[in-house]
C-alpha cells in the first residue's frame, strides 16, 4: 500500500541545533497514527514540516508516492493536508460559518447563503454548533469542532491534530473520539500528537515514538502498552519511580492548621467552598477543568480580587486574612506557584539569577534598597544547585531553558521567599519526565521540612502519588476528602464528575 | 558576533552613528571641530533628557505622551509666577509640584483605573495644555524674569568650555542609569515592564511602581523644561503641539528600547539621541530642508528596525509554545 503521506530523512535545524534529525515517517490511507514523545522530542516540528508551516532543512515529502514541496500552509491545504493547532487559528470576531468559508476563493459571501450551507454541512458531520454563533462565544471543544469542520470542508485527506484533547472536558473528549472514528470512515487519515498515552492506545492504529528529535519506534498499536511507550519515550523505565506504588505509601500526619477556608465564594466560579491545609503535609486538590481549583487558590493568595458577589472567610495561621493583591500574602508567607509560567511565572528578559533575586527582593528576604550583586550570585548559586537547574550558568535567560528548567526557576523564585504555605498549581504541566521526578522530590521535601503544601493537579496519578490528603473539587467547591493512602483512582474520579 | 558579540539594535545604531560621523567628518568642512561637536551634543541635550524620561516609562511597559505638555506648562507657570514677584526658587517649587501632581494623576489612571497608558497620557497632555493656556497664563510665550541668573546658567552657562545642558544630560543619564541598575525600585520597574502579572504574583508592589514611574518621568521632564527655558530665556507653550514628543519616542525606539517593555536601558536612549544629533547636525550643515530632514529621520528609524528584525528574528517556535 502506498502511504498517503510520507517524509524521508526529514531534518530541521534551528540555529544549527537539530529539532528533528533524519526522521522517516509515513501515514497510510484511512489510518489514525499517534505521535508520542516528551516535550522537545520534535513532534510539533515534524508535523509542522508536513503541514507546510516549517520548511525542512533537508529531506523530502511524498504525497501518494509523488514528491512535493510545501513551502506554505496554503500549499499543504491544496494538497489535502490540514493542521489543527492547540491554540485555534479561527477568527474570534467572525461567526462559525464565516470562518468555515473564509478561505474559499470568492470575493463576497451572502451571509444567508453560508448560514444555510454551514448548517447543512455541520449537520452532515453531526456537529451541533450554530453556524451564526460568534467564535468568541464558543467553548474550547466547539472551537475545535469548527476547526475540524473547516479542514473537512477543504477536502483534507490528512488532518494533523496537535494535542487535541488538552483543553477538552471529559464529555468533549468522548465526542472528539467519536468524531475521529467518523472521519476515519470517510477515508481521512489522521496524525495525532498527544501527551495522554491512554488516548493514543485507545484510538490509534499505529504509534510512532520520538525522542530528542529522532525516530525511536513505529509499530501497530496492538503491540504496545503503557509501559512500553514510556520506556521508548524516556529510554528508561520511569513509571515505577514516578507514579509507581502509591498504594502502600506512608502518609504524613497533619501538623498545625495553617490555612482554613470557610464558605468562600466568588461569582459563579468558586461556590461556597470550605477546606483546610495543614503544615508538614501535602494536600492534593483534584478537579476537572472548570471545577474552580485555580480560582480558589488565586482568591486565597490575593492574585484574584474577590468581586462584589463574594462571601466567606479565610484564616491563615489562625488569623483572618483578606488579600486584595498578592504582595501582603507573599509577605505573610503564602506563595502561589502559577500553572501558566509563561504568562505569569517568570521574567523572560532577565537571567536566572535576576529572576530568583527578584523573588528575594519582593519577599523582603533581601531588603536593602540598593541591590547587591554578591547576594544575588550567592542566592542564584544556592538555588540552581538545590533544584538542579540545568543551564550554562546563572546568567542564562530563562526563556532559553527547557520547560522543566523554567519551572524550576519559577519554583526557586517562590521558595527563596521562605513560604509557610506553598500552592503549586499544576506543578508539572509541560515539564519533561526527568524534571517531573525532581519536582515531585522537591515537593515531598518541603512537606518533610514542615511547610504546608497544596498541590493542584488535573492528572490523577500525580495527585495520588504526592498527596497525604486529597480534596476533590467539583463545580466550584470541595466536595469530598480522601486519605492519601486509601484513595482509589475510581472513587476520586467518581467524586469529581458526579 | 566575534569580538562584538550578538549584534543588537543598540550596537547597530551606534555603528551607524559612527559611520555617519566619519562620513560627515570627511565630506563636510567644519563638522569635525570641537566647537561643532559640542554644539551637536548641546543641541540634542534636551531631547536626550526627555529621552531618558521616556525610556524609564517605556521600560516599565508604559508611554508618557503628556511629557512635553507637562514640562511646557509647568515651566511656563513657574516663569509666570516669578514674573509676578514670587522668588524664583519658590516659583520653581510650584512648577515641580505641578509636575508631580500630573505624574501622580497619570500613574493613578493607569495603575488603579487601568486605562491604557497611551490614552491616559494623550488625554492628560491635551488637558494640561488647555488648562495651562486658559487658567495659568494668557500668552503662548512666557519670558524669563531678568533677575533669574542662577537658572540662566543651566541653559546658557559653560564649565571648562562645555555648555551646561550637556552636563545636565550627563547627570540625568547617570542618575537614571544607577537607579535602574542598582536600586530595588529600579529592578521592580523592569520586572513590571517585563511581565506585569508575574511581578504581581511575585509580590512586587506593581501599582505603586507604576505611579512612581510616571512621577519620575514628569520630574525629569520638568528639568528638561528648565534647561529649555534657560537657554532661550523663555518658554513657548506651543511646543506641546509640536512633533517634539514623537522625536522623543523616536530616540527611545531607535536606541533599541522595545515598546513591549522590559528591554534595553538608559544606554540605548543615549545612543539613539547621539544618532539623531549627528544626523540633524550634518543635515543642517548641508542645508537640507526641514521637511526633507523629517523624511530622512523616518527612513533611518525604519532601517534600524528592519536590520534588528533581520539579525534577531523572533523565533516563532519558541515565542509561541516553547515546544520544539
UniProtKB/TrEMBL annotation, chain A:
Alphabetized Pfam families for the sequence: ABC_tran
Task: Name any one GO molecular function.
Answer: ATP hydrolysis activity
**Is-annotated flag, keyword ATP-binding?**
yes
Instruction: Give every ABC transporter domain span.
Output: 5-237, 253-495
- Regions annotated as coiled coil: none
Question: What keywords are assigned to this protein?
Answer: ATP-binding, Membrane, Nucleotide-binding, Repeat, Sugar transport, Transport
What family does this belong to? Answer: Belongs to the ABC transporter superfamily.
> Sorted alphabetically, which PANTHER family does this protein's record hold?
CARBOHYDRATE TRANSPORT ATP-BINDING PROTEIN MG119-RELATED, GALACTOFURANOSE TRANSPORTER ATP-BINDING PROTEIN YTFR
Q: What is this protein called?
A: Sugar ABC transporter ATP-binding protein
Q: Which organism is it from?
A: Flavimaribacter sediminis
Amino acid at each position: 500500500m502506498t502511504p498517503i503521506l510520507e517524509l524521508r530523512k526529514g531534518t530541521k535545524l534551528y540555529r544549527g541545533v537539530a529539532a528533528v534529525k533524519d526522521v522517516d515517517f509515513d501515514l497510510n490511507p484511512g489510518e489514525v497514527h499517534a505521535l508520542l514523545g516528551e516535550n522537545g522530542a520534535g513532534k510539533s516540528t515534524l508535523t509542522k514540516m508536513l503541514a507546510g508551516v516549517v520548511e525542512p532543512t533537508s529531506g523530502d515529502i511524498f504525497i501518494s508516492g509523488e514528491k512535493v514541496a510545501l513551502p506554505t500552509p496554503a500549499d499543504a491545504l491544496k494538497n489535502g493536508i490540514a493542521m489543527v493547532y492547540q491554540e485555534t487559528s479561527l477568527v474570534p470576531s467572525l461567526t462559525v460559518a464565516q470562518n468555515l468559508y473564509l478561505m474559499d476563493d470568492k470575493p463576497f459571501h451572502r451571509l444567508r447563503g453560508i448560514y444555510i450551507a454551514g448548517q447543512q454541512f455541520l449537520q452532515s458531520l453531526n456537529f451541533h454548533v450554530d453556524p451564526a454563533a460568534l467564535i468568541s462565544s464558543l467553548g474550547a471543544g466547539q472551537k475545535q469542532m469548527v476547526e475540524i469542520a473547516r479542514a473537512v470542508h477543504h477536502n483534507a485527506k490528512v488532518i494533523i491534530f496537535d494535542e487535541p484533547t488538552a483543553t477538552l472536558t471529559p464529555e468533549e473528549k468522548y465526542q472528539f473520539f467519536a468524531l475521529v472514528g467518523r472521519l476515519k470512515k470517510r477515508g481521512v487519515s489522521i496524525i495525532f500528537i498527544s501527551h495522554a498515552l491512554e488516548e493514543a492506545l485507545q484510538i490509534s492504529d499505529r504509534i510512532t515514538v520520538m525522542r530528542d528529535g529522532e525516530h525511536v519506534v513505529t509499530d501497530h498499536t496492538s503491540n504496545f502498552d503503557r509501559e512500553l511507550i514510556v520506556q521508548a519515550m524516556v529510554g528508561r523505565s520511569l513509571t515505577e519511580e514516578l507514579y509507581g506504588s502509591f498504594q502502600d505509601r506512608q502518609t504524613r500526619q497533619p501538623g498545625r492548621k495553617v490555612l482554613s477556608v470557610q464558605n468562600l465564594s466568588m461569582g459563579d466560579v468558586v461556590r461556597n467552598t470550605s477546606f483546610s491545609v495543614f503544615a508538614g503535609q501535602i494536600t492534593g486538590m483534584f478537579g476537572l477543568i472548570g471545577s474552580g481549583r485555580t480560582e480558589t487558590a488565586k482568591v486565597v493568595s490575593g492574585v484574584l480580587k474577590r468581586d462584589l458577589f463574594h462571601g466567606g472567610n479565610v484564616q491563615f495561621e489562625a488569623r483572618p486574612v483578606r488579600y486584595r493583591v498578592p504582595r501582603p500574602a507573599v509577605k505573610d508567607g503564602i506563595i502561589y506557584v502559577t500553572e501558566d509560567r509563561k504568562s505569569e511565572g517568570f521574567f523572560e528578559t532577565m537571567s536566572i539569577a535576576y529572576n530568583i533575586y527578584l523573588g528575594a527582593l519582593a519577599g523582603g528576604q533581601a531588603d536593602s534598597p540598593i541591590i547587591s550583586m554578591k547576594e544575588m550570585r550567592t542566592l542564584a548559586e544556592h538555588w540552581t544547585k538545590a533544584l538542579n537547574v540545568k543551564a550554562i550558568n546563572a546568567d542564562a535567560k530563562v526563556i532559553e531553558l527547557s520547560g522543566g528548567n523554567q519551572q524550576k526557576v519559577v519554583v526557586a523564585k517562590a521558595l527563596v521567599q521562605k513560604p509557610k504555605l506553598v500552592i503549586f498549581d499544576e506543578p508539572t504541566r509541560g515539564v519533561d519526565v526527568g524534571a517531573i521526578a525532581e519536582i515531585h522530590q522537591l515537593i515531598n521535601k518541603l512537606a518533610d521540612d514542615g511547610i504546608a503544601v497544596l498541590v493542584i493537579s488535573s492528572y490523577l496519578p500525580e495527585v495520588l502519588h504526592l498527596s497525604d490528603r486529597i480534596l476533590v473539587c467539583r463545580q466550584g467547591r470541595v466536595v469530598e476528602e480522601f486519605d492519601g493512602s486509601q484513595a482509589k483512582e475510581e472513587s476520586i474520579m467518581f467524586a469529581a464528575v458526579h | 558576533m566575534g569580538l562584538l558579540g550578538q549584534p543588537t539594535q543598540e550596537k547597530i545604531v551606534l555603528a551607524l552613528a559612527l559611520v555617519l560621523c566619519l562620513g560627515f567628518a570627511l565630506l563636510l568642512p567644519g563638522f569635525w571641530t570641537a566647537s561643532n561637536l559640542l554644539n551637536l551634543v548641546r543641541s540634542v541635550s534636551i531631547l536626550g533628557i526627555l529621552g531618558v524620561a521616556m525610556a524609564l516609562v517605556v521600560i516599565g511597559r508604559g508611554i508618557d505622551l503628556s511629557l512635553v505638555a507637562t514640562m511646557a506648562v509647568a515651566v511656563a507657570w513657574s516663569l509666570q509666577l516669578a514674573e509676578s514677584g514670587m522668588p524664583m526658587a519658590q516659583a520653581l517649587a510650584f512648577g515641580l509640584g505641578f509636575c508631580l501632581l500630573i505624574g501622580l494623576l497619570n500613574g493613578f489612571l493607569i495603575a488603579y483605573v487601568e486605562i491604557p497608558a497611551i490614552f491616559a497620557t494623550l488625554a492628560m497632555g491635551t488637558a494640561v495644555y488647555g488648562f495651562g493656556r486658559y487658567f495659568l497664563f494668557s500668552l503662548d510665550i512666557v519670558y524669563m524674569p531678568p533677575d533669574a541668573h542662577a537658572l540662566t546658567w543651566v541653559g546658557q552657562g559653560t564649565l571648562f568650555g562645555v555648555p551646561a545642558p550637556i552636563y545636565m544630560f550627563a547627570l540625568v543619564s547617570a542618575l537614571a542609569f544607577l537607579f535602574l541598575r542598582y536600586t530595588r525600585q529600579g529592578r521592580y520597574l523592569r520586572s513590571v515592564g517585563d511581565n506585569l502579572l508575574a511581578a504581581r504574583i511575585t509580590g512586587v508592589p506593581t501599582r505603586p511602581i507604576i505611579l512612581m514611574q510616571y512621577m519620575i518621568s514628569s520630574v525629569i521632564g520638568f528639568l528638561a523644561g528648565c534647561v529649555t527655558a534657560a537657554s532661550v530665556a523663555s518658554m513657548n507653550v506651543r511646543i506641546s503641539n509640536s512633533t517634539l514628543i514623537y522625536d522623543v519616542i523616536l530616540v527611545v525606539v531607535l536606541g533599541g528600547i522595545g515598546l513591549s517593555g522590559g528591554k534595553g536601558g538608559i544606554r540605548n536612549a543615549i545612543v539613539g539621541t547621539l544618532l539623531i544629533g549627528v544626523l540633524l547636525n550634518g543635515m543642517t550643515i548641508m542645508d537640507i530642508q526641514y521637511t526633507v530632514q523629517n523624511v530622512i529621520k523616518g527612513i533611518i528609524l525604519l532601517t534600524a528596525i528592519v536590520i534588528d528584525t533581520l539579525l534577531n528574528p523572533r523565533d516563532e517556535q519558541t515565542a509561541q509554545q516553547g515546544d520544539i
